[in-house]
Amino acid sequence: MLKKPLIAANWKLNLNPKEATAYFEDLKKNISSSDFENLAFFPPTIDLQVTSEQLKNTPAFWGSQNVYTEISGAFTGENSVEMVKSLGANMCLVGHSERRTYFKETDEEVAKKVQLIQKHEMIPMICVGESLVQRDSGKTFEILNAQMRTVINILDENRPFVIAYEPVWAIGTGKVATPEIAEEAHQFIRSQLSELLSKEVAQEVLLLYGGSVKPENAAELYKQPNIDGFLVGGASLKVDTFLQIYKATI
Ligand code: PEP
After folding, report:
1. What's the rounded Cα separation, in Å, for the pair 157 and 54?
2. Is residue 166 annotated as part of the catalytic site, yes or no?
3. What pLDDT, in 10s, does the model give residues 13-44?
4. Which of 36, 52, 140, 224 might form a disulfide with 130, Cβ 3.0–4.6 angstroms?
């Protein structure tokens, strides 16, 4: 069951299986089993086997940073929803801005992946967010609206999903959005969900903020009424800083 706060770790292209094992062993020594209900992990695909072993018997959310738009076939280098699910994963990250920028993922591809993830009874964590050029030209809400609409068109609102608002200009740059800027975007996303789906869904869905979240800024951001947790990149690579962020929310 998804509940607030949800603090998610996106390791990106970091930590090999041996390092991932050490990470989870360290983590388990420092928190109780029930804390895992509030945590999610997105390791590189090669770490999913050890993640599955390490998080077995915990209520943690975990899965891949991406999946392919097809289930099987001649698609060298890709991984399917079914493969990720076969390891016991329950959540997948989708539409991260690094995938949209470097791998040219479109809103339509993101939507198709969301559909496959939900069909396979996993929870999509859907990333949306504007670039600096888009923000500076006053297009933030237009962009968020376009990204949300494409996904919402195919989303099954009766199955769980999570939205992560990640302004591209704040990811990995050390430039965190102010609590006011983040809250304004979260309010907009919630109003879109209310308009395009329903008030009930909009109230229930967890909206995470991502972009240079650190132990020093987490508590202030989390005070905002529409911020239900965080998607953390760089600061999730060390158990200590990741747990400090989690502890700032409880
Ligand atoms: C991310 O990768 O989703 C992210 C928010 O990165 P960082 O915390 O390093 O800005």
Report:
1. 31
2. yes
3. 999 999 999 999 999 999 999 999 999 999 99
4. 140
